[in-house]
Amino acid sequence: MLAPSQPQARLDIFRRPAAALTMDLKRLSHSWVRDMTWLLHAPDMATLGCPGRPALAELGLDRHDRRQAWLAEQETLDAEFERQRLKRRSPRLGLYHETLWQWILARAPRTRLLAYNIALREKGQTLGELDLLYASTPVVDSPCDDRKADVFHAELAIKFFLGLPEGPGGRHDAARWIGVGSFDSLAIKCHRLLSHQLPQGLSPAAERQRQALGAAGPLQQRTIMPGCLYHPWDRRLPLPRLANDSAEQGLWCHRSAWPALVRQLPEGTAGHWLIKPHWLAPPVSAPLPLAALEGALARHFNDQGKSAHLLLVLPDGKQCRVFVVRNEWPPALPLPPPAVLPSAH
Asked: Which of 31, 46, 82, 132 is the most exposed place for a label (fewest CB within 10 A)?
């Protein structure tokens, strides 16, 4: 029995994967198709006053049989996807995420990718760029339905933020949820989306670009920001303002706390070591025993590794992402953004 003073692991964070996602992943072997499948089901991390990721119905993939057939088709296009991915010449997770959504919107039954990474210029000066422009065809109610496709501007991000028990602002402040690199936070990212990226999509420069693409007229905007919010391993923090209640949640611990966390896991717990950029869907390989993970962690941190991203799996099938970070983490705290963000609640 645990001593009353001993910290207790928050095993209530562990969840079974959604049944629809599990079924969709069942016959998929390529990591990028599995990651893309995860994106189709992943909840958005934040609510920012405009819709989040395209719904399955908007993509034409809401029917299970149609979605599975479409995913099976993507499995045959591995070489083509690899050529597209290598054009970016970068292993960055954010660029990989963008490439996956470009692929989805270009090939889903009811969407058409119009352009991506669209540079905005005014009088020879670069103002920024739009991540995505795409069109979605409305559901046809009758053969005479001649409604035009809706045009969307979407800004993309995939984020993994670790919550701090103490830090900038109050208990619900989004500035307390920071990236592993300790230079970004949920508050900073949401502030940039609201104050810069989304307004750019409504600028005269953006309107000229849409006219050139034949997509002028009413515009709808979306933010596509999946990811995960990680609680300290021994406590559950209140979710920050702006966060969706359905956002995926995990745990984080310092390297020195890992043994204490492991001692409280049920016998038979196993796990995956997640390798960038494949941090999204569970790997197709079998999870490793905890002893093997411990050995890998020891080697990693002995070699001056900064963090490790794991997916732990309990014997009953419940799962949880866990970030293991160096004992000195965080080396610094990112400054909160200058403006107060609106509340999502």
From this structure: 82
